[in-house]
Amino acid sequence: MSRLHVVSGKGGTGKTTVAAALALALATEGRRTLLVEVEGRQGIAQLFETEALPYEERKIAVGPASEGGGRRAGGEVHALAIDAERALLDYLQMFYKLGGAGRALKKLGAIDFATTIAPGLRDVLLTGKACEAVRRKDKTGRFLYDAVVMDAPPTGRITRFLNVNDEVAGLAKIGPIHHQAQAVMRVLKSPETAVHMVTLLEEMPVQETADGIAELRAAGIPVGGIVINMTRPALLDNGDLEVAARGARTGIAKALSQAGLGGARRGGLAERLIDPLLEQAREHAERVELERTEHAELKAIGLPTYELELLPEGVDLAGLYRLARDLRKQGPI
Amino acid sequence: MTADDTTLDASAPWLEVDALLDDPRTRIVVCCGSGGVGKTTTAAALGVRAAERGRKAVVLTIDPARRLAQSMGISELDNVPRRVKGVDETAGGELHAMMLDMKRTFDEIVEGHADAERARAILENPFYQSLSAGFAGTQEYMAMEKLGQLRAGDAWDLIIVDTPPSRSALDFLDAPKRLGSFLDGKFIRVLMAPAKVGGRAGMKFLNVGMSMMTGTLSKLMGGQLLRDVQTFVAAMDTMFGGFRTRADATYRLLQAPGTAFLVVAAPERDALREAAYFVERLAAEQMPLAGLVLNRVHGSGAAQLSAERALAAAEALTERAAEEDCAENLEPAGIVDHHNGKADPGTAGSLSPAATAEQEPPTSASAAHLAARLLRLHAERMQVLARERRTRDRFTALHPEVPVTEVAALPGDVHDLAGLRAIGDRLALSRAEADR
């Protein structure tokens, strides 16, 4: 069972929402999850309707109660927005007691260099902090977090982001950075990690999902499941259009008219609705067909899939809990 | 509800895309926006339209979807603009397209600015190799560098740039500045200290503090990596001035009147929040904003029928059809068909097999079921319209000065020139046409 869940996907597919819902879903009774953000967007704070997250782990929610008989309360969700600069200073302090030197380095611009310009260091710090949280234990020797969920960079950058430690370990062949990078890589390539891909039932995100999974596999990083986000029910399909094409026009016009929408004769209010309504139906049916094709393509990848319905009013806190329950119902992720 | 409610508030200015593309003073169009809103497609569609209207245009894409790249014939990544075939050149324009190759662009800068021996030393440096292969940030620098090159080459009269899918979509604006502040910073002198100390004994005394710093760095990074970095920095030393100048020049180019920023967004809360942030940042940086492209907006040919009325009518029809079903329950086929439709009116699959099997014209009851489904679909569409309008209005209330154009949603993805042309047509609709 993985303990580090990395959530990626094409831009606009709802990575942050899915990561948050997953953190909630995994927070069953007595369990504690940590939701981390690495891109400095404060998306988690917006979703949970709290003020901006500091660089500090704090409890932000309680997982949804389990359903069925003897409802039991949910566990805890903690959150952390990882800041590369703070992570580096912490790291220097923790391992080298370099508090003062850290400040001097910052003044020099070295910290800025390390976190924004130096190849990969930023990503090493971000993944390193997440892996540290995965491995952290409390006094009794029990893992502090049962699961860590990362709202990760998009598909196009995810493999490089996770694999950066390999590259850095190759670049710094000895020394603490080398060891740190290797330690992080051991977690990321172990069964403790699972990268989940969020997608929509559209061509480009599905294509990126397939490409991204192939890249991750080639890099030896374990892939978890595919979350199909924002699915919509099919209200009608090509079958209905065939019925309409076989001369249901008059019938539809009459029906619309009987429902109080105006006259059914040519040029009547109800009759004039038919063309635009059928046009919408045609577009809808076309989309339904496309979605079926994309769905089949995702299934062919051969990974477990999870589906989350589109919440028409956008995702608020209540919606997030609904998505978390939906994820739970679909079995372990 | 009238058609007016579904189109833009008359107070928001309309973005005239053709006027922008046709104006010979427009030399650079930058498409920016958060991920997944259709930036690359918009950039490509603008390129096709500009070329077919007579401009000699080049589209610089950063990371296009494979099929979009194929549609423009740039599936190979060779860092050189290629002429796009199939574009109508009768108006005297042409379209070129290229995909950014970060490493190649970086290598070219090195080769162009250092003598052969020094260039080789840099290109072989392990630190450089990782840096140029595209770690965070490099893509932004190189996109801006390439834009500067294309503009300096002056072979095109319109350059359309798609921006990288960065962690913050405005990283490309910060990239030149960040590079500049790094190059001007003390840190770089610390890194170069040992290299210089060797040559100039007098510097040694002054650099005690700095040597301590490099000692710390060495402890952290490992001696070999620090040496790689130092060699790299020393080899790049002579080029830094050039870098700085170019970064500044590119930044000024972006502020120049010939540049037009288009913020691309989908009519969704998050995308428009990001768009508002963009608009504010561009203003703060004194970058010329041309307007907002609102992508994938839904419309309806029957906007006069509200969601509420459509739903009420659908309810009435379903009820009445159910009564008719009971009356007709002597016909077995009818029962199967209609009961399925009634029990689960939201599921299309349950009805279609029966419907396709039945070859006679639909009965009045099945026509009523069908009409009810059309109405429910319409109600859903009207709800989408209302939501999109609310999110858009929130944006225009915050930024009433920003011209907006809306692009109607297509049911599928675009992967050929015809599709790009269709997007271009939609982009360039006037307000009156869009209202219809």
Description:
The complex is a heterodimer of chains A (333) and B (436). With 333 residues, chain A is α/β, with parallel strands linked by helices. Chain A folds into 2 domains: 4-232 and 310-329, P-loop containing nucleotide triphosphate hydrolases (Rossmann fold), CATH 3.40.50; 238-288. Chain A is built from 12 helices and 8 strands. An 8-stranded mixed beta sheet of chain A has the order 3-4-2-5-1-6-7-8, with helices on both faces. In chain A, helix 3 (84-96) crosses helix 5 and helix 7 (155-171) packs parallel to helix 9 (203-218). The model of chain A has no long low-confidence stretch (mean pLDDT 88). By secondary structure, chain B is α/β, with parallel strands linked by helices. Chain B has a single domain, classed as 3-Layer(aba) Sandwich (Rossmann fold), CATH 3.40.50.300. Chain B has 19 helices and 8 strands. Chain B has helices at 17-22, 39-52, 66-71, 102-113, 116-124, 126-132, 138-153, 171-184, 186-199, 201-206, 208-221, 223-255, 269-284, 307-327, 332-343, 352-357, 364-398, 417-427, 431-435, and strands spanning 28-32, 56-61, 82-83, 94-99, 158-162, 259-265, 289-297, 404-408. Chain B has an 8-stranded mixed beta sheet with strand order 3-4-2-5-1-6-7-8, with helices on both faces. In chain B, strand 6, helix 13 and strand 7 (289-297) form a beta-alpha-beta unit. The two termini of chain B are 15 Å apart. The relative contact order of chain B is 0.15. Mean pLDDT of chain B is 79; it is low at 1-8, 195-206 and 332-359. Chains A and B meet through helix 4, helix 5, helix 7, helix 8 and helix 9 of A and helix 6, helix 8, helix 9, helix 11 and helix 12 of B. Chain A: GO terms for molecular function: ATP binding; ATP hydrolysis activity. Chain A: This is ATPase. Chain A: Residues 5-187 form the ArsA/GET3 Anion-transporting ATPase-like domain.
